[in-house]
């Protein structure tokens, strides 16, 4: 029914957006159970009846946040699929760009990322679906001749999700490395490996 009977308008949209932003921060800081509607509305300078114009309850605003994250993340993953006909010398740049976009999204939305990708009861399912989507991308990219068919793409996809997950916590959120740098390092590891090329074979 839209906003539970409230007319859509710029003020209404702004109020809803403010509630979502504050709720994301409250959930990220205090967890789902530690967050109260009263705390959200107090920080927003609103009343509880105003909150209920937009959201049925705490669970509803939490679910909207998680669904927003999921939609944006899967859209980025879909966009990152390599289409046929890319020049080989621009391949690593294209892959780096796609990964950097994902890390940038996480960096710009740290509260949303924390609750959706790490703390939500559905975060494990989200990462499983992300790995499946990456695996589908990789399968398409193998067909287009970009990657070796001998690699187990399920293992590759799960490894990539694990890297993204861990580096977000240890490097991105603490501000140690920027999205582009992390993306470049991941691509370098996967495309070039870690073997010292100067070692001569016996």
TrEMBL record:
Residues 13-73 form the HTH tetR-type domain. Residues 36-55 bind DNA. The keyword DNA-binding applies. Keywords: DNA-binding, Repressor. Signal peptide: none annotated. Pfam families: TetR_N. Transmembrane segments: none annotated. PROSITE patterns: HTH_TETR_2 (PS50977). This is TetR/AcrR family transcriptional regulator. It comes from Cytobacillus mangrovibacter.
């Amino acid at each position: 029914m839209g906003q539970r009977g409230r007319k859509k308008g710029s003020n209404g949209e702004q109020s809803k957006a403010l509630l979502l932003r504050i709720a994301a921060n409250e959930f990220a800081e205090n967890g789902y159970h530690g967050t109260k509607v009263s705390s959200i509305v107090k920080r927003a300078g609103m009343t509880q009846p105003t909150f209920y114009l937009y959201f049925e309850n705490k669970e509803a605003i939490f679910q909207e946040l998680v669904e927003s994250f999921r939609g944006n993340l899967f859209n980025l993953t879909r966009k990152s699929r390599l289409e046929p006909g890319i020049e080989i010398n621009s391949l690593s740049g294209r892959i780096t760009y796609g990964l950097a976009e994902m890390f940038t999204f996480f960096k710009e939305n740290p509260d949303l990322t924390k609750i959706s990708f790490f703390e939500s009861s559905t975060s494990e399912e989200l990462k499983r679906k992300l790995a499946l989507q990456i695996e589908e991308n990789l399968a398409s990219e193998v067909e287009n001749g970009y990657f070796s068919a001998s690699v187990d793409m399920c293992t590759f996809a799960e490894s990539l999700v694990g890297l993204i997950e861990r580096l977000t916590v240890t490097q991105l959120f603490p501000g140690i490395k920027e999205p582009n740098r992390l993306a470049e390092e991941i691509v370098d590891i996967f495309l070039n490996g870690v073997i010292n090329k100067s070692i001569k074979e016996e």
